[in-house]
Amino acid sequence: MTEHFFHEYLAQYKPFKNYWNYEDGCLLLGCTRMFRAAGNTEYAEFVLRYLSGRINSDGSIPSYPVDAHNLDSFNCGKVLFFAAELTGEERYRKAAAWIAEQIRQHPRTKSGFCWHKQIYPEQIWIDGVYMAAPFFAEYANVIRDERIYAEISRWFSFVETHMRNQDNGLYYHALDEARTQAWADPLTGLSRSHWLRGEGWYLMALTDTAALLPDSQAPLRELLHRALRRAVTAILPYRTQNGLFLQVIDRADVPENYEETSGSLMVSYAMIQGAAAGILDADMMQAGIDILEAVRAQKLVRTEKGMRLTGICSAAGLGGTGNRDGSCEYYLSEPVTQNDPKGVGALMLAEAARLQAIRRAELRKSAV
């Protein structure tokens, strides 16, 4: 049923925006993982078709919003390594280097952390770690530049020190170093709520970055492993009776709060992947699969117009236009949609992780 949905979805998919964007990146990355896990060339062909018309021979990307200085823009770049490996085309390697060059031009906070976007000065958003860190870890592997890992380490160390709630172990969506934003606590600079997808982005950043670190980066790897174990232990008690997580994780007291699909899938993926890598206890594998199964049973529905993945928060942010004040009420006011690539991409990641875990288990049995 799940792979049938993916086939149907990809056949009808149109780019989320007319420029290089992170939403398409979620789907592209999901396709690379499903190709590795299931071997269906449809997934690889989708990725290559998407990239082919967007990357020039010199590696430049005309639709990349350079002046926006947006960490989200790095997400699509993660699949360039896959395309380079699959096709051997030099333009994809050049494109990865071209994107990496953007980091040198990216404005930074006083602590040295990249602004989330040009329009959000001095602000650190937790999803930005996911958008950028795994890309730079893989780029560092390709060019063998160990200096990049020092910056990655600073990012995660900052989040662990400044953006984690020491009382419940959950993470805040953002921090304003300038302490000027209306949504920011005047003392800590932190936003107010524990948004599920923000937490999900960060859990995936931990698993994906850790998997890309060489042996020379053992201290950084251990930092990420400890953080993942701690984060999973902290969030699991907030699972609902249906086996999912709420849009605002710790506010079950609010009747309007709902079980959100994309974030639940991100947690599922991180748990399956983390257990497969030996970072989490073995029983976390089944717990992650149980979350995936709960999503498939409750959120993946068949309609007259085809299959729909429901219950996905369309978007959420802080400041800017609208009343984005970081309150629980704000996160619950954002539209809930279906078949959004942030949710479908996360479903692909979780399903691919499940398939690979099954394959590894079968190989171990056959070896005995």
Overview of this structure, please?
It is a single chain. The protein has 368 residues and is mainly alpha-helical. The protein has one domain (2-360): Alpha/alpha barrel (Glycosyltransferase), CATH 1.50.10. The chain is 53% helix and 5% strand. It is built from 13 helices and six strands. The chain has helices spanning 2-12, 22-38, 41-52, 80-87, 90-105, 127-143, 147-162, 196-211, 218-235, 261-276, 283-298, 328-333, 341-367, and strands at 123-125, 174-176, 300-303, 306-309, 312-313, 336-337. The strands form three sheets. Strands 1-2 form a two-stranded antiparallel sheet. The chain has a two-stranded antiparallel sheet with strand order 3-4. Strand 3 (300-303) and strand 4 form a beta hairpin. Helix 2 runs antiparallel to helix 3, helix 6 (127-143) packs antiparallel against helix 7 and helix 10 (261-276) packs parallel to helix 13 (341-367). The longest helix is centred in the C-terminal third of the chain and has 27 residues, at 341-367. The two termini are 32 Å apart.
Order of helices and strands: HHHHHEHHEHHHHEEEHEH
| Fold-level CATH name | Glycosyltransferase
Q: Structurally, how many domains make up the residues?
A: 1
Mean pLDDT: 96
**Helix share of residues?**
40-55%
Major sheet details: 2 strands, antiparallel
What is the radius of gyration computed over CA atoms, rounded to a whole number of angstroms? 19 Å
**What is the 3D form?**
globular
Q: In percent terms, what proportion of residues is strand?
A: under 5%
Question: Which structural class do the helices and strands define?
Answer: mainly alpha
Going across the biggest sheet, name each strand in turn.
1-2
CATH level 1 name:
Mainly Alpha
What CATH architecture would you give? Alpha/alpha barrel
Separate helix tally: 13
Number of strands: 6
